[in-house]
Sequence to fold (386 residues):
Amino acid sequence: SYLVIYCKSYKTRPNQSFLGRDCIERFGQRTIQRINNDDDVICTTEYSRIVPLENGEIVVSLVNGRPGALNFSYSPVLREFTKATNIRLRFLRTNTLLGHLMGKALRDPTVTRRVSHRGLHRAPPYGFLGLQCDCQHNTCGVSCDQCCPGFNQLPWKPATTYSANECESCNCHRHSFDCYYDPEVEHRRESLDAHGHYRGGGVCLNCQHHTTGVNCERCIPTYYRSSGHSLESPLTCSPCDCRSQFTDGTCEDFTGRCFCKPNYTGDNCDFCASGFINFPDCYRDCSCDITTLIQTASLQTPTNGLVRGLCGCSGIGSLPEVCDASGRCLCKSEFSGPRCEQCRSGFHSYPNCQGAYRLPSSCLSAPPASTDTPAALVRPSHIIKM
Fold:
């Protein structure tokens, strides 16, 4: 009798295949006449005959007689059951006449094995450590069980009789040669494969040449797509020429036109946008219809100074009651100008605007029509309150 133990790995419980004259006596298990499952552990007395007395051959097959033996490639349970890292033969006693008095000898133990190559290899060559898989179809690993770097457009799958399930390259437009597979990207159809179809979930890693994106298809901020180079060119992304303080540093693809900060416009953001005046300050033009300003402001939470901000009135020199009926800023008594941004005649040291005399605080002044016309007093009832 003897016991065959083969370990699936160093970390898992070993499978056992029993051979003995009396399965019940030795191993507490009945002899199985028929194997019903690919991973059944069996006890057999097939090799327990008295003869031959010597030079007998015992064959232990982990495949033959099992349900998946005739279709091994499509029997994942049987493939997993037959994988092992170590095999141990434990001899208990001989079973020939007075075998318990005889010595035992082991001659030419041979383990016939196959390399677990997932069907993605050629004939394995001899390497420094013995047999090694010669992986094909863009697969890598000791057992060809993973896709090679740069070939993760689709998830790895074992080969079948009808398909090699070849690992496909990611489409990084030659700006990267490494990628990983993301099932969420495939679900959202965001990855472009090498054939120009949104299929698979390959995501490029470490995009070069100032590119970014799932397929390295976009330029990083402060760079733009050059119209003179293809997407695969190392020069496809050119730096934006947006050195003005009124740009946000980014620019439009193919034209290189700078994107401006709010209130500014122009190829170099060197003009005020429509509705704004006095570059480089670019405050809102107060010649606009005050009714429109008030309607715009009413859509927001009413607060003192809201329309004043829209008209570009000075926060220091204007009154909190904002604009008058003509849309002009309402200045404090010691300030003047379209935006109340200067001291009134007779006052000095803007923004403190000190003078020899001051109007009573109950008097409110409006900006004059011209610098030669004295300021006109405005009644409090003329002030539009929010």
Summary: Confidence is low (pLDDT under 50) at residues 9-13, 289-309, 357-386. The chain has five helices and 28 strands. The radius of gyration is 43 Å.
